[in-house]
Design brief:
The protein is mainly α. The chain folds into two domains: about 240 residues, no CATH class; about 220 residues, Serine Threonine Protein Phosphatase 5, Tetratricopeptide repeat (Alpha Horseshoe), CATH 1.25.40. The protein is built from 25 helices and four strands. It has a four-stranded mixed sheet, with helices on both faces. A hairpin with a 4-residue loop joins strand 3 and strand 4. The longest helix is centred in the C-terminal third of the chain and has 24 residues. It binds zinc ion.
Length: about 500
């Protein structure tokens, strides 16, 4: 189809994509800041869910308990601050998802999606020097949502079929990752038209800068993180225009914005320089090693750690050792991985949060090396937070203690029913115990958590079939009746979804 025949829906997709896409300079069709009409929150949430469902299926999506917990810690502080300042209204708070999805992609990108979902690429985490810098970017994106920029941009498009808008956003997201990936969905002239139209207005960017800065400082982050991050991105963009900085192409750092940012920062009293943040440095090392690097890059991380003197600055040292340990494991050298992890434990001893990350890494490496009993012991030494639970459950299943894993995970999913990974590991625990019906139900719940109701219904039906074949008077009655109830609930949700399309 030619883009001439579909100007409206093309524009719709373009507008919502907001921060995610390369944009040049078309402003004329965008509503101005004075336009107060907005897409209603329910419709925006539905659209966001359709996009999130596809992103969960993307092979680059990652559910990494360690990085998720770290990013969530920053994100939660920003949300609290936005509530305190009145930027996040009770309605939006309640209606939107407010979830950050991590992508393995090495490009430097962060983007707000409709309905309170955020995308964050590991490439962006990799280039931050402090958690304040990461907070600056997340605060900016958060503010695009709380200020209803996305909703306002979509106002003119809300008569479009949501699935069509969702498809276009996904195509455009794919395009922002690699120059060729999106071509199947958005061809030739359409892609160009999209790039030309996709942007927040300059006023919206300035508002997100201002509100985002207020939110990040209210949350207790160092305001210097804001200027440092944007200076860093600006410098990087001068050196590198190869497409690995999609964030910058959608957020051009003009002199005016930089001047605003510097002026704002000067109004905040300067505290003493904070102590070195070893945990952040470790998370940078993790993001680098997990962001789909090739073998040469992994070897580079090992060489880098070897070339460092023990007298190097602690953040530099722990970042390099962490990356080298994970890289060695990926290069199938478990002995080297254990050596780097051991050195890391030495450097982080005495810093409790950093020491915890060292232990978690050692447990993960032991699990990867097949030393499941060591992994189980290590993963249990700290408090029962999510990373510990996920690791110790996998280690227990692998070492013949699936019953213990299932018990701990059942308690967890009762409190966190949206935790897809917990459901998935629980399914493995049940399988290891020969409890097929429960395993299939857990798989179904994992699909519900990933918003894929059709896939969930498939699994629920399979569970019903299994229970039916067990015959009356046999099998697990309680589980069978839970399966029946959940099947009906998911069927009814699917009918509602079909009506909204
Ligand atoms: Zn922006």
């Amino acid at each position: 189809m030619s883009h001439m025949s579909h100007p409206r829906w093309l524009r719709a997709a373009v507008l919502v994509l907001a921060c995610a896409l390369p944009a040049l300079q078309v402003r004329a069709q965008l509503p101005t800041l004075g336009d107060t009409s907005e897409m209603n929150t329910g419709a925006e949430r539905t659209l966001g869910e359709q996009i999130a469902r596809e992103l969960y299926r993307d092979p680059d999506y990652m559910d990494d308990p360690v990085l998720d917990e770290y990013v969530l810690g920053i994100w939660t502080r920003l949300l609290d601050a936005a509530r305190t300042r009145g930027e996040l209204t009770a309605e939006l708070d309640d209606r939107f998802a407010w979830r950050v999805m991590l992508g393995k992609d090495r490009t430097i990108n962060a983007f707000a999606l409709p309905g309170g979902w955020m995308g964050l690429h590991l490439g962006l985490i990799s280039v931050t020097a402090t958690r304040d810098e990461l907070a600056a970017v997340l605060g900016h994106e958060l503010s695009h949502v709380t200020q209803r920029h996305i909703s306002r941009l979509m106002t003119q498009q809300n008569r479009q079929a949501p699935w069509l808008v969702a498809a276009m956003i996904l195509g455009a997201l794919a395009m922002s990752k690699s120059p060729d990936a999106g071509n199947a969905m958005v061809a030739g002239g359409q892609a160009l038209a999209m790039q030309n139209q996709l942007n927040f207005s300059r006023e919206m960017e300035r508002e997100a800068d201002r509100v985002g800065f207020g939110v990040m400082t209210q949350a207790g982050f160092d305001p210097r993180g804001s200027v440092n991050m944007f200076e860093k991105l600006q410098q990087a963009s001068r050196l590198n225009d190869s497409g690995s900085f999609p964030y910058l192409r959608t957020h051009p750092m003009n002199t005016e914005r930089m001047a605003d940012m510097q002026a704002r920062q000067q109004l905040v009293p300067r505290g003493a320089a904070p102590p070195p943040d070893l945990v952040h440095a470790m998370m940078v090392g993790r993001a680098r090693a997990l962001s789909n690097p090739g073998v040469d890059v992994l070897r580079g991380y090992v060489t880098d750690a070897d070339s460092l003197q023990p007298s190097a600055a602690p953040p530099r040292l722990v970042s390099a050792l962490y990356a080298a340990a994970l890289a060695s494991s990926k290069l199938r050298d478990p002995a080297a991985a254990a050596r780097y992890a051991q050195r890391l434990a030495g450097v982080t001893a005495g810093d409790a949060p950093a020491a915890r990350q060292s232990v978690l890494l050692a447990a993960e490496l032991a699990l990867q090396a097949g030393d499941t009993s060591k992994a189980a012991v290590l993963a249990q030494t700290s408090a029962s937070a999510r990373p510990e639970l996920m690791l110790s459950s996998q280690a227990r299943i692998a070492s013949g203690r699936a019953g213990e894993a299932a018990q701990a995970l059942q308690t967890w999913v009762a409190l966190h029913p949206q935790d897809a990974q917990a459901w998935q590991i629980l399914a493995s625990a049940y399988t290891a115990q020969g409890q097929a019906l429960r395993a299939i139900r857990a798989e179904a719940e994992a699909q519900v958590a990933r918003l894929d109701l059709s896939a969930a219904l498939d699994r629920f039906k399979a569970a019903q079939e299994l229970a039916r074949r067990a015959g009356p008077g046999r099998g697990d009655h309680i589980e069978a009746s839970i399966v029946d109830t959940r099947t009906r609930q998911v069927e009814s949700l699917l009918r509602e979804q079909a009506l909204k399309r």
